[in-house]
Structure to design on (424 residues):
C-alpha cells in the first residue's frame, strides 16, 4: 500500500516526539508499505513566528509572512528525515516547492491548483521515504512561497495522497480520532468509528479543528479515504468516508464551536435594492469570507440593520473597509463585536427528522444563553452566542442530544420520506 501519514504540531513538538514519529513511519515501511510523510511545524512555532512579525509591524506584508511561516514546516521535515535515516531507512525531505505544490497567488490562504510531484515519485520508487513540509506551496512560475491557511498541513496531506493515488491518508494528532465534540471540553465525548465526508466538512467548517475544512472538501471531492488517529498510541481512529444508510439513523452526530468569529453590524442602511450587493462585493473583493448574514426588516421601510460574521483575523481589515462602504451608502455607522462564538449541531439524520432546531433553542434557553443569530442548512443548525457561554453551551447540547451514547441522539419525529427540508 502507499500510505500518506500526516503528523500535526504536537506530534512533532520536540526531538522525542520526532523520534517516535520516525519509529512509526519506519515500522509502517517495514510492514511492506510505501510511506510519504507530511509534517506540521513544531507546536506553537507558527504562532511564535506570527508574534515576531507583529512586533515589527502591525500589518506585515502577506508575501513575507508566507515565506516566514513556511520555515516552521521546513525545519520539522528535515529533522524528521534525519530521524528516519538514523533508524537505517532512506529518507529525503521536500519543501512544498520541491514537491511541486502549485497554488494560486492568494497569500496566507492559497488554494492548491495542482501537484507535479515528479521528483518525489521517482525517489519513492527508489525506496526513499519522502517527508514533505506541510502547509505550503509555490505560485506558478515559482515567484513566491504561499501558505494554505491555518491547519493547512492537513490539506497538504490529502492533496498529496490524491496526487500520488495513495491507498490511505492517515492524519496523526493528539486525540484518538473524531469525537462527538471536542474531548478537551466534554470528557464524555464519544469517539466515532466513522463519519461521512459531509458531516466532517460541516463540523470542520463550524470550528472542529481536528481537520482543516479545505482538506475535508478535497478528500470528499476526490474520495480520498482519511483516517484520523493519535500519534501517542495505536488505537484505531476514525474513518472519514462516504455516507451510508446507517449514518442517517443518527440525528445529531456532533457539536462544534468556533471562537474565531467576529460580528459586524452596519446600522441604518437604506432599505433599497443593490445595497447588500455593494456591501458584500466590497468585502469579497478583499478576500474576506463572510459566514452568517442577517438583515432585519425595516420597520419604516426606509432603513435597516445588516449583521454578518467573518473570521476574527480579518475583523480589523473588514471593519475599516465596511466603514468606508457604509459612508458611501449613507448608513449610520458600523459596530464590531469580537466576544462572540458560534455553536453548531451537525448530523445527516436532520434531513429526515424534525424538531431538532427547536430542541437546540430550548436547551440554550433553559440555560439562559441568548441567541444573537441563527443559520441552518440541511444537516446543521448554528447559533451565535456570547463567547463566555461557549463551553457551557457545548456541554448542555452534548448532554441534551445524548451524544455520549452510541447510536443515540434522541431523535425528533422521523419524517416521511420525500420531505427533505429542515423543519423547526
Ligand atoms: P494537530 O496539531 O495535530 O493538527 P489540532 O490541534 O489542529 O491538531 O487538532 C486536534 C484538536 O482538535 C484536538 O486536540 C481537539 O481539542 C480539537 N477538536 C475539536 N473538535 C474535535 C472533535 N470533534 N473531535 C476531536 N478533536 C476535536
Ligand atoms: N503550522 C501551521 C499552523 O499552525 C499548519 C498546520 O499545523 O497544519 O496553522
Ligand atoms: Mg491541525
Amino acid at each position: 500500500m502507499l500510505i500518506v501519514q500526516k503528523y500535526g504540531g504536537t506530534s512533532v513538538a520536540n526531538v522525542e516526539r520526532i523520534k517516535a514519529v520516525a519509529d512509526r513511519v519506519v515500522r509502517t515501511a517495514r510492514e511492506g508499505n510505501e510511506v510519504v510523510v507530511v509534517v506540521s511545524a513544531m507546536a506553537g512555532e507558527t504562532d511564535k513566528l506570527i508574534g515576531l512579525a507583529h512586533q515589527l509591524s502591525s500589518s506585515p506584508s502577506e508575501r513575507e509572512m508566507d515565506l516566514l511561516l513556511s520555515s516552521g514546516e521546513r525545519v520539522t521535515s528535515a529533522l524528521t528525515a534525519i530521524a528516519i535515516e538514523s533508524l537505517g531507512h532512506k529518507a529525503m525531505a521536500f519543501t512544498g516547492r520541491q514537491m511541486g505544490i502549485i497554488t494560486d497567488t492568494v497569500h496566507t490562504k492559497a488554494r492548491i491548483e495542482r501537484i507535479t510531484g515528479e521528483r518525489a515519485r521517482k525517489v519513492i520508487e527508489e525506496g526513499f521515504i519522502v517527508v514533505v513540509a506541510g502547509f505550503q506551496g509555490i505560485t506558478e512560475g515559482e515567484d513566491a512561497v504561499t501558505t494554505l491557511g491555518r491547519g493547512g498541513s492537513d490539506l497538504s496531506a490529502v492533496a498529496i495522497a490524491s496526487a500520488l493515488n495513495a491507498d490511505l491518508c492517515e492524519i496523526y494528532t493528539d486525540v484518538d480520532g473524531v469525537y462527538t465534540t471536542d474531548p478537551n471540553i466534554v470528557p464524555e465525548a464519544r469517539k466515532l468509528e466513522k463519519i461521512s465526508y459531509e458531516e466532517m466538512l460541516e463540523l470542520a467548517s463550524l470550528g472542529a479543528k481536528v481537520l482543516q475544512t479545505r482538506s475535508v472538501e478535497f478528500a470528499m471531492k476526490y474520495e480520498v479515504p482519511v483516517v484520523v488517529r493519535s500519534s501517542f498510541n495505536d488505537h484505531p481512529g476514525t474513518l472519514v468516508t462516504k455516507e451510508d444508510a446507517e449514518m442517517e439513523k443518527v440525528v445529531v452526530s456532533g457539536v462544534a464551536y468556533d471562537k474565531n468569529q467576529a460580528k459586524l453590524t452596519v446600522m441604518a442602511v437604506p432599505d433599497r435594492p443593490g445595497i447588500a450587493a455593494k456591501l458584500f462585493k466590497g468585502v469579497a473583493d478583499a478576500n474576506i469570507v463572510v459566514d452568517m448574514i442577517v438583515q432585519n426588516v425595516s420597520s419604516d421601510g426606509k432603513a435597516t440593520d445588516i449583521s454578518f460574521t467573518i473570521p476574527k483575523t480579518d475583523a480589523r481589515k473588514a471593519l475599516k473597509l465596511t466603514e468606508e462602504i457604509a459612508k458611501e451608502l449613507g448608513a449610520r455607522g458600523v459596530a464590531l463585536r469580537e466576544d462572540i462564538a458560534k455553536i453548531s449541531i451537525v448530523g445527516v439524520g436532520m434531513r429526515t427528522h424534525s424538531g431538532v432546531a427547536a430542541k437546540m433553542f430550548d436547551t440554550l434557553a433553559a440555560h439562559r444563553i441568548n441567541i444573537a443569530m441563527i443559520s441552518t442548512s440541511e444537516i446543521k443548525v448554528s447559533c451565535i452566542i456570547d463567547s463566555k457561554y461557549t463551553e457551557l453551551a457545548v456541554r448542555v447540547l452534548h448532554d441534551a442530544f445524548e451524544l455520549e451514547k452510541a447510536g443515540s441522539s434522541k431523535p425528533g419525529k422521523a419524517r416521511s420520506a420525500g420531505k427533505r427540508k429542515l423543519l423547526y
